[in-house]
Amino acid sequence: MSLTPGADLMAGPPPTHLPVDPAAELLAAGEAPGAVVRRLPASPLAWATLAEQARDEGADDVTVYAYSRVGYHRSLDLLRRNGWKGHGPVPWEHEPNRGFLRALALLALSARAIGETEEWERCADFLRDSSATGYDELLG
């Protein structure tokens, strides 16, 4: 570990900024979330959008939970590949981070809906710790 003179030794890790998700362009062009998931199955944004669509169309809470869980796990893979070490800010203000944050919020909400209280609390806390703004936008 290298110590730079004047470095803040109490500062946390730097914010993680994910790359642009190629699904964003397809979804913005009106492509159906299910079709985008089939084309880009590693996309957190595609899975989050599919989970939102399922929820909005009245799908069973377990279905929404499953879609959002896939989006969450795809997000963890992407976060790690982009330098995230398991904690630290993932700012809502950086648009490409929103697929992860939306998947995490949907996982929290659908966990609560199926009675999985510990998962609801863990995911809600994780969202708040990752992005207070994202928490306010999605769960607040």
General description of the model:
This protein is an all-alpha fold. It has seven helices and no strands. The protein has helices spanning 23-28, 33-39, 44-56, 61-81, 98-113, 117-130, 132-138. The chain is globular and about 55 Å long. The N and C termini lie far apart (38 Å). The model has no long low-confidence stretch (mean pLDDT 94).
The average pLDDT score comes to: 94
In terms of quaternary structure, the protein is single chain
Biggest pleated sheet: none
Task: Give the low-confidence spans.
Answer: none
How much is the radius of gyration in Å? 16 Å
User: Using DSSP, what is the number of strands?
Assistant: 0
Distance between the termini: 38 Å
Could you give the order of the helices and strands? Answer: HHHHHHH
Strand percentage lies at under 5%
* Helix-and-strand structural type: mainly alpha
| Helical percentage | 55-70%
Shape: globular
